[in-house]
Amino acid sequence: MVDVSANEVRVASASDYIALLKPRVMSLVVFTGLVGYVAAPGQGDLILGFAAILAIAIAAGASGALNMWYDSDIDAVMTRTRARPIPSGRVARDEALMLGLTLSALSVVTMQLAAGPLAAALLAFTIFFYAVVYTMWLKRWTPQNIVIGGLAGALPPAIAWAAKTGSLSFDAWLLVAIIFMWTPPHFWALSLLQKADYAAAKVPMLPVTDGAKATRMHIFVYSLLLAPLGLAPVATGLGGIVYASVAALGGALFVFLAWRVLRSQAGEGEPHEDKHARALFGFSILYLFTLFAALLVDKGLGV
Amino acid sequence: MSEPGVILSAEQVAARKRRNLWLALSIAGFVLLVFFITLAKLQAGVLDRPL
Question: Which pick of A9, A18, A189, A234 has the fewest CB atoms within 10 Å?
Fold first, then answer.
């Protein structure tokens, strides 16, 4: 069979394939996974720990590639994603699919070698959950897409925990719960800013299906649940004094910014009102990052 | 040979070369990773067993 498309100029560089792996999402996943590994009890092995975190990173990249393969129709419509490698024509869809499948297999095999069956199974489940349950099913079907789908992004600390200890404890699930509760307000703040894009792409995000006002209320309610949950690791002894301070201060600020979003007209088409949603979106990333960094600091200090 | 087949431009050939290089490096990296994981695993248990 002659591939007629092969003669069209398509000069994909390595950076295009790296873009398929969603490196920015990957960095947060790697960081939370790393913290899960360090925070888990016991003496970790440097090489096996490195391999486990690398496997999580590759799996996150594979999920990103599978997501871009399946969602290239949506990505072509939305301004934020229009320049991605597939909609811009630099990488063929099949290549993204193959890259995603290959890296998925490699990551799970690596995890099995380095950390055993529990971590490998959890990793495989996470890829499946993101690529199939979230991307193929939930995203186009329900406004609860990111609430349920958020589980995939929340699992890395538990995977890393399992990689180090071979088991899962309450503390591991607590870290998962925090990211799980953090995801909806984080993404809804973004979706308020890109309501028109989601509507054009026919993605049933909450602002499209239920309106901006309901979305702002949802954001506020979730932030009220997130702030105390962020403090829970202090009660179980996982977090120390640094973590407690960061969780209390960050949680309060999160609720305050969400309250400002609630009181604003963000997502109603007034650009100057959207700044509150933008502020919350930006802060939400900082919040999760500092929260997990604080766990590292506490662990390093031994408090 | 009657048909010349697909003729790549110089730019496409260069891009293919770069992609192949990255592939080779990735595969080499994976081989090294498996090697070091094996070493770490051996140190962790196999060498400590009573002979």
Answer: A9
Q: Where are the domains of chain B?
A: 20-45
Question: Is A113 touching B (CB cutoff 8 A)?
Answer: yes
A126 plus A175 within the same structural domain: no
A6 found inside a domain: no
Q: Same structural domain for residues A48 and A174?
A: no
Cα torsion at A73, A76, A82, A85 (round to 10°)?
60
ipTM over 0.85: no
- pLDDT digits (tens), chain A, 303 positions: 444 444 455 578 888 999 999 999 999 999 999 999 999 999 989 999 999 999 999 999 999 999 999 999 999 999 989 999 999 999 999 999 999 999 999 999 999 999 999 999 999 999 999 999 999 999 999 999 999 999 999 999 999 999 999 999 999 999 999 999 999 999 999 999 999 999 999 999 999 999 999 999 999 999 999 999 999 999 999 999 999 999 999 999 999 999 999 999 999 988 889 999 999 999 999 999 999 999 999 998 775
Is A105 in CB contact (< 8 Å) with chain B?
Answer: no
Distance (Å, whole) CA A249 – CA A253: 6
Specify if A243 maps to a domain. yes
Number of domains in chain A: 2
